[in-house]
């Protein structure tokens, strides 16, 4: 199994960026709103796919930042659909709720993550919704997540969720569930080396736990990248609320290419056992 921590300067990183074998004609990609629910709440997601491709293909969940289900997550779902996947941008807060201020974002995210059973029920509702799509191969399911969403998918994988692989972008590493024996997912963590919300101790604790389990993981740091480096709105949000957020186009591009190679390898079953 891979047990690799890669510190990757943005200027010098060479990524594995082959096109997905599931690639499609992006002119056929369409997205639509979709509702699903748990016993407690209705969630308003967004699913994107090639409307003219009826073959079964892998499905990928997209979990939003702490601001809530928004255009950033939906754009990612559309881009994944262009690669040939069926992508569901999930709604972890319920009712499509979004935060307009960091105080609300913190409250919404804490409400979910402080009760992991609730978080898992909401995540699993999205997971089953995706698996039950007629054009999704339910044996090939992955997830990506941003910020809060990165923490969500790592916690879900750590707890043994049925996910082939997860790719977390600028994820917080103070997780409600650390890696358990039931962990079977491949793990890719794509963080900014200049992210003040992630400490060396947190990185060491998490990667050490993966090492102890013999998990298949990679941890990649991008030099010069801060928190929320994939979100073009990060600069304005950081300035507005005096937060250390910044978009980094190069890290955004490199990390997306890294994710593409990771998903392609995961779903192709070609990952090397090391």
From TrEMBL:
- Extract the SUPFAM superfamilies matched here: alpha/beta-Hydrolases (SSF53474)
Q: Which keywords fit this entry according to its UniProt record?
A: Hydrolase
Molecular function terms, GO-annotated? hydrolase activity
PROSITE patterns with a match to the protein in the record: PROKAR_LIPOPROTEIN
Is Transmembrane helix one of the keywords UniProt gives this record? no
Domain Dienelactone hydrolase, residue spans: 44-266
- UniProt keyword Hydrolase, yes or no: yes
Q: Which InterPro entries match?
A: AB_hydrolase_fold, Dienelactn_hydro, FrsA_esterase
The entry's protein name is Dienelactone hydrolase family protein
